Amino acid sequence: MEKLDFLITYLLKERNEKLDLTELSYEDKKRIFRSLCNLREPEKTTESFLRIQDMYLQEEIKEKGITENIEDSKMKDKIYLWKGDITTLKIDAIVNAANSQGLGCFIPCHKCIDNQINTYAGIELRLECNEVMKKRNYFLHTGEAFITKGYNLPAKYIIHTVGPIIEKNVTKDDEKALANCYINSLELAIKNNIKTIAFPCISTGEFRFPKVMASKIAITTVNKFLDKYSDKFEKIVFNVFGEEDYEIYETNLRKGKEFN
What we know:
Structural class: alpha/beta
Oligomer: single chain
Radius of gyration: 19 Å
């Protein structure tokens, strides 16, 4: 509790704000801390803040439970389907479904995976993303990807990619852009000697890409990539969070390449 009080007080002071924390529950404080981190601009902070933040986040992730073994989730050679919280997965790299700004989600406690990943990685992640994105004029083109450290996450690296946003109907350009999210992420993985990587369901949440179609594009793209570069990977994980997504991926993975 003392760590959390210190972190909240520090972040409030940055904003010239105050809050009486004495009557708040631990869960309330966790939400306030997360909200303040989500809202925080990518500005440097003190070593003492980072040290205490890192201790707190690592305790939180340990409490959630670090996932090291998913061998029972294997669907076929080198391809796995795993349902769970991607921020607990101990793996070489996880993929973040980012937005075009590339700095993480700024909406307090938003349910998107970008927010989850930035929350539990720590504010160091936004600082590194800022260094990358200022060289790109703060715009990440759809389908592009870049890599950062994982910081407090069990994963060593995070590969950030932005999927297409669907307004009405899915176009061929949208399909190609979604495929490029997987291709560019896998190419970055090879360049960084990443052998194990986990993908979320890119674009199927806030970006409204139809789930069944998105899963077929993801599976087809990964299968084709493995046809050429199978020796570069030990494990490629399709990570889902809900039962509906799990059933969609399980069905389409069992079909193999019938829908190619």
